[in-house]
Amino acid sequence: MVSPPPPPASEAHAGAPLRVVFMGTPALAARILERMIAASGRDFVVAAVVTRPDQPRNRGLKREPSEVAAVAARHQLPTLKPVKIRTPEFLAELQSFAPDLLVVAAYGRILPNAILAAPRVMPLNVHASLLPRHRGAAPIEGAILAGDRESGVTIMRVVERMDAGPILLQRSMPLAADETQGSLKDKLAELGAEALLEALAGLRRGALAEIPQDESAATHTAQIKKEDSLIDWSADAAWIERMTRAFDPWPVARTTLAGAELMVWRARVVAAAALAGSAELTAPPGAIIRLQPEPIVKCATGALALLEVQAPGRRRMAAADFFRGRRIEIGARLGA
What we know:
Low-confidence stretches: none
CATH topology of the largest domain: Rossmann fold
Number of domains: 2
Largest sheet: 7 strands, mixed
Strand order of the largest sheet: 5-2-1-6-7-9-10
CATH class of the largest domain: Alpha Beta
Distance between the termini: 53 Å
CATH superfamily of the largest domain: Formyl transferase, N-terminal domain
Number of strands: 17
Radius of gyration: 23 Å
Order of helices and strands: EHEEEHEHEHEEHEEHEHEEHEEEEH
Strand content: 25-35%
Number of helices: 9
Helix content: 25-40%
């Protein structure tokens, strides 16, 4: 059921620009914030930014601001970095900016109703999937792992349930066969910024209707952890190949070879029909069944040709060169 459009957002301030408080943290959100700042003017202005607290980063573990905080600093925007958001103090700080809209993009926390009620018009979320598919913290990785042929962005009203609010606008795009987490994040950041600006213009005119999500079609993703990237060679070869793309550039699909960790950056599926002889067909999962022209590893279904790998502390390199340099022989097992 389609709900009638909300009243024109311009009624909030009788023609004055809408005051937006932006909430986000990583690079994808920073790209959207940059586009919003560039487009600020008659219709809306970014009044303030909320992001996660500074975190230890890189080898020195020096505390550094989030990508969103860095953008806000360059443009001299007031910035809040609350450790806790369910406090009267943070709510009062947020309300002091008199927001008409909250715009949330990969902030990283579920917002309580008190915060969602702070803007005069509504809280909006830019979600990097075609909801209700891939709700949750890892929609980009989820789309690649699922083998989806398309992805996109959803502009939705935020409710206290994870990514369950009504849809205001969606824009889709096809996924390339070699799409990685990194490449898809870049594309969806741009698409998300364009969709958000379109939605803001629609809200200003009262031209957007709210469409409830189909709960029966909802799928969910969880936050990615480093242990999720460990390859199980008893899985299907196509799944493992998608892992290498979904976890590039982080946390990177990985396995072990002779007891040492080995990161797998790029791979190619070898169909079961292309395997020859009983030795290749009956080899256990994880066994190296060929070395030329590139190493091929047996999986539960089919096999995987390793194209680019990396040992910890070393540079990325062609898998054939790595295995040749280590004098690995056919029959050696990965992940054993």
